[in-house]
Amino acid sequence: MYAELLCKTNFSFLEGASHSEELVKRAHEIGLQSLALTDRNGVYGLPKAYWYAKDIPGFHLITGAEITMHDSSPLTLLARDRGGYAMLCRLLTQAHADKPKGEAVLRLNELQETLRDSRSRGLYAIARDGSQIQDYSEIFEDRLSLALSRQLDGRDDERLLRALKIHRETGVPLLASNDVLFHEKKRSPVQDVLTCIKNGKTLVNAGFELKSNHERYLKSELEMRRLFHDLPQAIERSVELAQGCTFSLSELKYRYPSEWIPAGFSAQTYLIDLVWRGAKSRFPNGVPEKARKQIEHELSLIERLGYADYFLTIEDIVSFARQRKILCQGRGSAANSIVCFVLGITAVNPIQMNFLFERFISLERKEPPDIDVDFEHERREEVIQYIYGKYGRDRAAMVSAVVTYQDRSLFREVAKTFGVEVGTLSSRETQARFEELSRSSPVPEVREKIEAITDEMERFPRHLSIHSGGFTLSADPIIEIVPVEPARMEGRTIIQWDKNDLDYLGLLKVDVLALGMLSALNRTLLAVGKELYELPPEDPETYKMISRADTVGTFQVESRAQMNMSGRLRPENFYDLVIQIAIVRPGPIVGKMVHPYLKRKHGLEKAVYPNEILERILGKTLGVPLFQEQIMKIAIELGGFSPGEADLLRRAIGAWRSSGSIREVGMKLFDALLKNGVPEDYAQMIFEQMKGFAHYGFPESHAASFALLAYASCYLKRYHHAEFTYGLLNSLPMGFYAAHTLIDDAKSHGVTVHPCDPNLSSYETTLENGALRLGLKLIQGISENEIKTLIAGRPYHSLADFLSRNPIRADILERLAMGNFFAAFGLNERDALWRILADAIPKTVRAEKTQLDLFQVSANPGDSVRFHSLPTFDGITNDYAAYHASARGHPMVELRRIKKIPQTRIQEIKRLAHNTPISVSGLLLVRQRPPTAGGVTFGAIEDETGILDLTLFQDVYAKYKPIFLTNCFLIIRGTLQKDGDAVNVLVRSIAPVFSERDPETLSISVSQYFW
Fold first, then answer.
1. Residue 1006 pLDDT
2. How much is the pLDDT for 665?
3. For residue 262, what is the DSSP state?
4. Which range of residues forms the domain containing residue 661?
5. Residues 6+ apart with CB under 8 A from 322
């Protein structure tokens, strides 16, 4: 027998050249019964290896890591038992602590101090050479080995003599290992490329930094025994250590913090108490029988699976947010749970919506629940710090996100190692110009070689990032469950595993997410004096507004695609809104569900159901399976699936792109449909539509959670437009639109907007008797401290007074002058700029009178030099440069006056008949080429009256691409297309409003209109 105990995966970043699953698979194929994964300074790759290895009978995955030691060679540690694993995690955490991201090193005294814990006997140690061998012997005693590898590189005899000398002097046993970096020989070129990327070299000049041969692959027992035929005891040492390592990742279990549970309660009984109290609050007229039964069912399942602590933790975090008036909303599959509903975690009643709880938790799946809670994006940090404060840094850390190499960036990185001189070109430009660039490479047929490497490196990890909001919490020190390391963001620590890794191990996490719309809604609600739950439901005027696509700035239904769908679907109630949010996704589009649904919604096609069961399940979506939950219900009621099996089917459907035949995955369901009298063509139609679920789509519960916020945002826009715009402007950046579009939209709805003013504007935009006063934070380039100083110095009586008390940078002052900021002092743009320039000349220079002072007359009090105001369009253009918005008006109003361009406004265009040829001009807002659109490009232009969608087929886009990509003001000619209330233009030609010869072009910065 033989066990390989030194083996790196590609989580030894830019060193290991194989996925952990590939190494486990290969070890099993060549007959190894034990394999240790020992990545550099981490256990990053272990969960995926564990998940793969658990289904291999008799295979033994050993947990370990290589730790970088200060002034010494690396030390590899293997976990013998649970205590040893805890010590390994502590040491890895210590190695990363207070180091820059991605760096780790451990000093000998830190090693000695940590391993005074008696649990340190649960570790085996493997030294690489004789450095600090005596110290290691004192710490680990008979648990220390000296690694010896034979790499057939001409230096094996030298390594052997050195190892035998240390062995004789210290008695430390020799351990045979191939010091593995990849699973098969063919992966060796990838390892060479990784080495070059790491060291910034090319394959031509890397020299001795590259391995001299391909021998660092995973070898069989027979190969290793041949290599070590003269040292059989070194082979046997590997078996001895492997047999001594009994620890498995399956032993890891979270115990959620529970010290705050009131005396006399267990986690389960306290959860039961909170749930029934919440039920009475949610159902003040008595808990309906159906709801009561569902609550009892869910509580029973939570108890059987031991998840009570988890629900209590989420409830505690949500309660904290509500106490602090931080708006929050649970979403995702948690909305399937009535327990989450009555605890106030989600706002969707799953009984009312007929949701399926097993979409959230099931016995068969035996995976932890996943509750996502959105908080106001500007106040999420308060929630995060509450979690850190309550549980401590030793018991709370954020989940990492593994960033992998993407196609284009990977191609660029690999190309550099082959000597292709890419310089500062982007990944996209590198591929576009590759034929030209490849001439700089000394390697023949370089593209084929690069592509072969990039294919092998698909999904290779690049580095760790912070998960968007995932937290791990534990009653025990988290650093004894998984190592913790600093993130790049100050004050953040992350564990070495990502979300999927936690799922593999059945460990729980809390998702604390940020949502900008919640910040905007909370500001709006405070301004109008309402709570979210107080908004009237099912308001007809709100749905009419959505159907008109009057949804700029709202949530979810604000994009151009959603606006188009609003006009086609014309929602009339909440469930229509749920469907609208879900249907504009790649999944339903690819599954060809959109057109059948719309035809049936408007009575152009009749929905046919083969039986009553299918009518009951698919009735609310008119026979089209828009949601994964519907497929689960079909599987349960017609396929004989248990709820948990149905969820497994849902997951399999989601993996169809990579796991093969649809028929193979869903044969049980397909056969069941046929047995229950469903015609084969109907069953086949359902499967064709289900193909879309392999692409991105919303579960019904998620769509419902978002629909609540979408409705709230639309209602507030309809009845409190000024307050809604106030909330949006103060929550930027967020959403689909820039500040100027929100401001122009408010003005088109009758809201008065006042410009920024040195004496009247606050830091944020404010409400003034139903009007808006733009806030100082809209000023481009100004710092928060400069704004605070400006506000503290009020009131200002003149520009000179303002300048004397505000050390604002000259470029910002000049921008403010041209943006008419100083109109309050009776000065136009040019007047203000002249005086600012005069003030900027040092008095000492003026006193020397060495040359004529251009500003001498105008700098004196009461000067008579005055300038004409800027033309209106120039004024608006300068407003955009100063604030990215203008309170004076929309630039298109003036452009129509000063330029020979189409005069018809967008609002008038929309009243024309279908197929009418039109010419229209506007400011380009959006350019999109979604991958599901078959090469079609979409855009949108706006003027002072509204927004108009554009559709460009491939030939038109190719012809006018330079104009479309580099101009902000466009003249569009095409044909008007109408579908219900949805309006767009099928573009035939595009022209710029400004030609290169126009003098006005010099005063316009395209960047100030593009965002």
1. 45
2. 54
3. P
4. 534-710
5. 328, 344
